[in-house]
Amino acid sequence: MASFRDIRNLLVESFDDGDISEDEFLLLYDANTSKNPDFPYDCYGSFDLNEMDDSECLAEFRFHKNDVPVLLEALQLPQSFTCHQGTICDGIEALCITLRRFAYPCRYSNLIPRFGRPVPELSMISNLVMDTIYQEHNHRVTQWNNTLLSPPLLESYARAIASKGSPLPNCVGFIDGTVRPICRPEQNQRIVYNGHKRVHGIKYQSVVLPNGMIANMYGPVEGRRHDSGMLADSGLLRDLEQHAFSTTREPMAR
Questions:
Q1: Model confidence over 147-183: pLDDT tens digits?
Q2: Cβ distance 128 to 83 under 8 Å?
Q3: CA 93: distance to chain centroid?
Q4: Which of 90, 249, 241, 97 has its CA nearest to residue 172?
Q5: What is the DSSP letter of 109?
Q6: E strand or H helix at 114, and its extent?
Q7: How far apart are CA 47 and CA 41, in angstroms?
Q8: CA distance 122 to 102
């Protein structure tokens, strides 16, 4: 499939040869100009995980170099991905593109020096990998909280906390809010801007459990929301009290 740049070069040659008129040239040249900035992606080489140092891999992808192929297999991802417009990407590279995108909020243009691909391809590949992971493993996300917050486990959490000296026999975890940074949106920037962290982001209300896991209680919501407002609006305390247990019928600790 010819790129916009190839078509524009062909139009210039056709105009020089007199095959098309000036009006036709201007019309066709404008129609074949991408709305995305024309980054010089072809100045960079193709991605090769073997050429990366382990420290680079850990910093950019949050996984050690030898762990990336293991992760590809664990996620049951294919050895190659084919986008709807025909772009083919190796499974390792596709996974690394997604990992780099998730490692910290960044624009796709920041990925060009590492992967040597144009922004549209990086976007399509990243979205394709995310869709594939969700289709294969969405049950692990949708059923996560139901498993972590089941009544038998809540009781075991309370016993674990009480055994460490807690005066409350029915405290099951520790609630807090967390801000996850996102790229600055083109619209409604103030809604998602968190003045405390000084980033654009979305917020979650979570509970840290004694086993080290984090259960999502409420969210995401816009980053400017205060923790107290999230807690009141979510009805979190009311929901937890429905699962509360106590031989003395005391309300669940807040």
A1: 888 889 989 999 999 999 989 888 888 888 888 888 8
A2: yes
A3: 17
A4: 241
A5: G
A6: helix 112-115
A7: 12
A8: 13
Region class of 198: left (phi > 0), else alpha (psi between -120 and 50), else beta: left
Largest CA distance in the chain: 93
- What's the pLDDT tens digit per position in 200-239? 999 888 888 898 888 887 778 888 887 666 656 655 556 5
d(CA 213, CA 66): 26
Residue 108 has φ and ψ, to the nearest 5°, of: -60, -30
CA distances to 41, 182, 202 from 103, rounded to whole Å, are: 21, 11, 16
Q: Side chain identity at 26, as an amino acid letter?
A: L
CA distances from 231 to 234, 238, 239 (A): 5, 10, 11
